[in-house]
Amino acid sequence: MNFLNKLERKIGRYAISNLPIYILLTYAAGYLMQMAGGDNLLDAISLNPYAIVHGQVWRIVSWVLIPPRSDNVFFVLISLYFYYSISRSLENAWGSFIFNLYVFMGLIFTVLGAFLLLGYFELLAPQDIAFYDDLYLTHYGQECSSLAGGSWFYASTARLFSTYFVNMSLFLAYAMTYPEARVLLMFFIPVKVKVLGILYFIVLVAQGIEMGILGLFVIGASILNFIIFFILTRSRFKMSPKMRTMRKEFKRQSRDAEFIRTTVAKHKCAICGRTSDDYPDLEFRFCSQCEGNYEFCEDHLFTHKHFKRNNTGSES
Fold it and tell me: 41, 160, 174, 304: which has the highest count of C-beta atoms within 10 A?
């Protein structure tokens, strides 16, 4: 955790504040694109590593617009609100920088997982790509368009790399941070978040096993940020969010007090400006005849002109 603290002090000012709002806006844009252009439009912006290395570099970023898929508008709205609320809670508990780091780690690892998948199949299992493309060509009698990625195998697997599993990593993080919090399952069954977190993790592992090597790259890459992050911060998250906030405020106040102690002199002459830090052997005294909190060195204690308040309350 010391590493993260040092990193935050160096580049923390560049963190995006209110990142959950921007995440919500990208999902909303993705749902509008899905309604306007259907799956064909989403395929054109999906995380297809084959298409990226063949010139469609926008896919490295554009895939984050693809939201978790659902045909139910009501469920979409509930999902957006739920993920926004847990994201806001995480940002409040961790701070903007740590939350930014967690989210972008998930996105970066997902992209890396897509390219590792490309390398694995191109080098170790090219026959699987040829088999799938031939199978599709036999059934549909058409080649895969260049916009879709030039290969039906990669066009289909690219749909697996979505924000769905990144959202799962956010929920797992929320379950680790607020294990005793309760949510209403099916809108009326109260369940502790840590229970749902365990169930979600089991479901993810089961999905990964069922998907085989694809699951290893897709799911593993998407939740790798959760695994790494909580290995690095396991001691930090033994405390409640309230305790972490209090500890952070205490450290800030301690740093401020240390700064004042090391930069502000204990005694300073109002005439010559010499301080007890610069001249430790010099004597300093307050003048009883001056109106105000003025201190003088031994050379000016009896020779200075006394400070008096004028009628306006100022000193001269």
Answer: 174
Q: Is the dihedral angle over the CA atoms 85, 110, 15, 56 positive or is it negative?
A: negative
User: What is the predicted pLDDT for the residue at 19?
Assistant: 92
Q: In this predicted model, what pLDDT tens digit does every residue of 211-258 receive, in sequence order?
A: 888 888 888 888 888 888 877 766 555 545 555 565 566 566 656 555
Residue with tokens 């010139």: 55
The per-residue pLDDT for range 68-102, each reduced to its tens digit, is: 766 667 777 787 888 888 899 888 888 888 899 99
Q: State the average pLDDT over residues 130-143.
A: 72
Nearest to 302, CA basis, from 289, 291, 292, 293: 289
Question: Structure tokens of 27?
Answer: 């999902």
Helices (H), the chain: 2-11, 19-45, 49-53, 59-62, 73-94, 96-123, 126-140, 152-157, 163-177, 193-211, 213-232, 241-263
Of 115, 216, 128, whose CA–CA distance to 158 is shortest?
Answer: 115
Query: Of 136, 155, 126, which Cα lies nearest the Cα of 51?
Result: 155
DSSP 268: B
For residue 203, the tally of other CB atoms under 10 A from its CB is 11
Q: Which two tokens stand for residue 153?
A: 């195998």
From residue 242, alpha-carbon distances to 5, 183, 253 in Å are 18, 20, 17
Is pLDDT at 4 greater than 60 in this prediction?
Answer: yes
Say whether 192 sits in a helix, a strand or coil.
strand
Given this model, what pLDDT does residue 289 score? 84
Q: Which residues of 112-150 are buried (b: 16+ CB within 10 A; e: fewer)?
A: ebbbebbeebeeeeeeebeebbeebeeeeeeebeeebbb
Beta bridge partners of 182: 192
Structure tokens at 22: 């921007």
At 60 the pLDDT is 92
